[in-house]
Amino acid sequence: MFRHTKQLQFEAKPEKPDAVYARKLQELIGGAFGEMTVTMQYLFQGWNCRIEGKYKDLIMDTATEEIGHVEMLATMVARLLEGAPSTVTAEAVKDPVMAATIGGMDVQQAIVGGGGALPADSNGYPWNGKYIVASGNLLADFRANVAAEAQGRLQTARLYNMTDDPGVKAMLQFNLARDTVHQKQWLAAIEELKADGLEEDVAPSALFDEENQDHNHTIWHLSDGPDGAKGTSWTTDAGIEYLMDPQPLGGPGTAPKPDPALYGTYAPLQDAMGTVKGKAKAAKNKLT
After folding, report:
1. pTM across the whole model
2. Which domain of life is it from (predicted)?
3. Domain-by-domain residue ranges, the chain?
């Protein structure tokens, strides 16, 4: 059960409207690492969690907070769009500078959203449920959560430097702080899973005896130069060995004969350059 408290978690009042910046803020709402993503990610992780108690409560508490972050951002977008050019475009575009500014706004916020936020990113691409990670394995999920919060904080930091509006900056300062806390909590929760004996370093902590024992401790060095082998923590400390000259273990990656009904180009005995027509064309090209 969810209840809506009719107050924002933190204030979202810009000093003045800015339709172009409203479009930029859409990334923090409906982008791949926006608040809609972490909201739905944590909700489904919580609903899929098979352990009642501290882990499920942590996930659901954070999920519920993220709903509030979507509300804050949507409110800020609506306020930034107050008096936006949907009603004054004809006059505004007479000024070249204003015309250029209007050219950077998201017209769908006016046409589709009626002067409000949309469930989309800063290019208007709709939010996608494929963005979320909710696997049921808490170690894998918490690591994904750390990455999501890191990317979200990174984008918030970039947007923070794209505005001089004190009201917008104040809200983003709050969001930056919450992203910091959330990264720390997921990192701590990962260690708690290990301390509780629920997970180990590798997710999932199973099938170690079944995996190929020749290839569970090597890094294939596939970059020019010797620098890879100079690594310390991921080699000596982790017991990982660098293969400086790895060789392929499989045969040619030849695709099978295509289904005739699909009309794929196919030479039954050799590749196209080896066919009679291919050889004739190559010989002709050589002569000319």
Report:
1. 0.84
2. Bacteria
3. 19-195
